[in-house]
Amino acid sequence: MRFGHFDDKRREYVINTPKTPYPWINYLGTQEFFSLISNTAGGYSFYKDARLRRITRFRYNDIPVDSNGRYFYINDGGEIWSPGFKPVQNKLDFYECRHGLGYTIITGRKNDIEAQVTFFVPINANCEIQRLKLKNVGSKNKKFNVYSFIEWCLWDANDDDRNFQRNFSTGEVEIEGSTLYHKTEYRERRNHFAFYHVNADIRGFDTDRDTFLGQFNGLNNPDAVTRNKSFNSVADGWSPIASHNVEVVLAAGEEKELIFILGYCENPADKKFMPDGSLNKAPAHELIERFNTTEKADKAFAELNDYWSSLLTQFHIDSPDDKLNRMVNIWNQYQCMVTFNMSRSASYFESGVGRGMGFRDSNQDLLGFVHQIPTRARERILDLAATQLEDGGAYHQYQPLTKKGNNAIGGNFSDDPLWLIISVAAYIKETGDFDILKENVPFDNNEKLAAPLFEHLRRSFYHVINNLGPHGLPLIGRADWNDCLNLNCFSTEPGESFQTTTNTEGKVAESVLVGGMFVYAGPDFVELCRRMGYNDEAKKAQQYIDKMEEAVLKYGYDGEWFLRAYDSFGKKVGSKECEEGKIFLEPQGMCVMAGIGVKTGEAKKALDSVKKYLDTKYGCVLLTPAYTKYSPALGEISSYPPGYKENAGIFCHINPWIMAAEATIGRGDRAFELYKKIAPAYIEDISEIHKLEPYVYSQMVAGKDAKLFGQAKNSWLTGTAAWNFVAISQFILGIKPDYDGLKIDPCIPSDMKEYTVTRHFRNADYVITVKNPNGVCKGVKEVTIDGKKAESNILPVFADGKKHTATVVLG
C-alpha cells in the first residue's frame, strides 16, 4: 500500500495523506542551521548541536506522536484549520506534502482557501524560511486570520527537559514590531539569541505559552485562535513561544504571500551587547533584510535547488531501471549528506541529547559523502582524529559544538580506530590529497600531543596489534561494530549495570569481525606507508596483515561460515556449537570483503550459508537462531526480544556488506537481489508493513522471529545510507576511486545489458558506458577512453576540467 509517490523530475516524494503510518520527515539545512520537519509540519530546529543549541521545543515519545512543530492556524469565520492537518486535525478538502532536497512544501485547502507553506534553510544562512502562500480559490471575497506558532527551547535540550525549577524563571523575550525575540540565556552568555519574524504588519502577538493556549487547552485549540484575538502576552519565565496574528483579505482568485523567518544569531565577540546591556539586534536585522520579500525568498530557494543539482552531478546513472536511477541519483546521495551532517544525533528516533557525533559513525558516513564535498570531508576527518586517544583508541562520540570527546561513553570500542584508516584512504582516493597525512592533529584535543595525521593512522593500525587475544585475534573491548555484543561484561542481578572485566582465567573476548576488518583496512595503511616513503613500515605492516588472515582462517572459521567471536571464557560465539546465535551476518560480509577465503573456498561457503540461514524476503537478519533468553555473558544483544535490533533483526547497515562480498566473489545476480530487498524505492508498495519513509533507508527492519516481521525502525540516521551507496556505486556498478584513477570493475546482474555513469572525479567529468552483450556478471574484457583502447581498467586522472568518455565491455 502506498501513501504517496515519487516525482523524479522534481526530485520529491509526494505524500497525499497526513495520516502516514508514522511521521515521514525531511531535513532542512546543509551547513550549521538544521531543522527536522514532518509531513504535518512537526519537528524542531537547532544550530550545529541538537543538544546545546536547540532552538525550538519538541516532545519525543509523546501522545500523540510528533508533538510540536512550526504550525499555522487559519481562523476563517470561526472555522479553524491548519495547512498540514496538525495540530488542529480538522479535515481538509485537499492535502499534499512534497519532501524535496533541503525543503518541504505542505499544501492544505479548505473552504476555498488554499494555504501552501514552503519550508527551507537557505545556503549560507542560519535561519529557516517559511513562505506561506495564501490563495482564494473561490468566487467570493475572503477575510480571515493567520496565526503562527513555535515554542522556544531554552537552548540546552537536556536541561530544558528536566530542570523546571530553574527554567520556569529564566524565559525572556522581546518584541520589536513584527519580530519576536527569544533571548533566554542572553543575560548569562550574551552571545546568542533567536527570533521569529514575519514581513507584514501584525494584528497582535503572543510570547507566553499558557496565555496563548489557555490553561486547559492543547495545541489543537489555543485560546488565542479560537477567540480570534491575540493577547499580546510577554513571557516572563515559564514557557516562551512566538506567535504572530496576521489579518488577510483576499478577493476571489487573489493570492498573497507572507515570509516568516526563524533565525539564530551570534554576536561578534566585541559586540556582545549594547552599552546599556540590551539585546544587540543588528545580526537579526541583517538576516531579516536578506530574505524579507517574496523575490528574495525565491532567489534563496533557487540557490538551494542549484546547490543540490550541482552536488548530484558528481555521480549520476542512466539505466533502464527507474527505481535504481532514483535511489542512486537522488535519495541515497541525499541521505548520505544528511547522515554526514547529523551522524546519529537528531532524528525521530535519536533525541539529539544522548549522542553527538560518533567516531565510527562519522567515519563510515564519510564513505558515502566524500565525492560530494571533499573539503568538508577533510574537515570532518581532522575533527575525528582530534578525538583519538594517544594509544590509538578513540572517544566513541563527541559533541559537535565543542568537538570534545564524550567522557561518559569513553573509548574501548575495538573497531573505532580502523574506521579512521578506511575513511582517510577513501578521501585520498577521491581527491589525491596526500598532504592531509602531514596535517598536525592533536590527540584527545590536546595541542601539546599533536602529531601528523599519518601518525594517527599508524596508532590506529597498531592499536589492534597491541591488543590481541589468545588466538591472535583482536580483543573485542567494550564492543566492536556491534555495540550490543558485550562479551567482557557481566551483571549478577537484573538491572545491574554492566562492568567491563575479565574472568578468573585471565582470558578476554576476541572479535573475528575486527580481525576481518583489520585485513580489509590494512592494505590501505600499507599503501599509504609506501606513498609516504616508509617502505620498511609497509613491509612490517603487511606481515601483520598476513598473520591476521591466517588467524582468522585457522581460529575464526567454523566449517561453513566465519565465527563471530570468542567470549571471555574462550567459548565460540556464532558457531554451529552454539544453541542460539549459531551464525552472525557481520563477519561473513567483512571477512569476504577483505578477501579472506576467496581463493580457497571459505568465502563462497560463508555466503552460501548467509543465503541458507539468514536471508528473508525483507533482507538478511543479523543472526540466527535468535536469543530467547537473557545471557549476562553476551550482554545487551540478548536483552532485545527475538527479531529486533541486534537480536536477529534485519540490520540494514550490514546488508550492503553482504552485497559487496557477493560482488567480491563475482555473484552479481545475488548482489543485486540483496540490494533490491532493502532499497526504499523497491519496497514502496509495502509501506503499510514497513511503516517508515519509503524514500530513505532505515537502520533496522523486524526479522523473521518478530511479531511485526518487516516493520522498520530508526530511519534516516544510519550507516545503511553510506554503505548502500558504496555497495551499489563501487562494488555493483563498479565505479571505484583509487589512488591513481577510477577503477572500473562492475559486478552486475546478468540481465543488466547497459548503463551509463557520469562521474566527476578530480576536476574532470567521466562519462562511462558499461556494456554487457554476453550477459555476464563480472569481468572487464575491453576499455576504451576517448576512442582509444586502454591498457587497464583504471581510468587515468585527467584533472583538466574537461569531459572524457569511456566504454567498458564486459565478457
From TrEMBL:
One Pfam family per UniProt: GH94_b-supersand
Signal peptide: none
Keyword Transferase: yes
Residues in Glycosyl hydrolase 94 catalytic domain copies: 307-734
Residues of the Glycosyl hydrolase 94 supersandwich domain: 11-292
Domain of life of the native organism: Bacteria
UniProt GO MF annotations: carbohydrate binding; cellobiose phosphorylase activity
InterPro entries named among the record's database cross-references: 6-hairpin_glycosidase_sf (IPR008928), 6hp_glycosidase-like_sf (IPR012341), Gal_mutarotase_sf_dom (IPR011013), GH65_N (IPR037018), GH94_catalytic (IPR033432), GH94_Enzymes (IPR052047), GH94N_CBP (IPR037825), Glyco_hydrolase_94_b-supersand (IPR010383)
GO biological process: carbohydrate metabolic process
UniProt EC number: 2.4.1.20
Keywords annotated in UniProt: Glycosyltransferase, Transferase
Protein name, UniProt field: Cellobiose phosphorylase
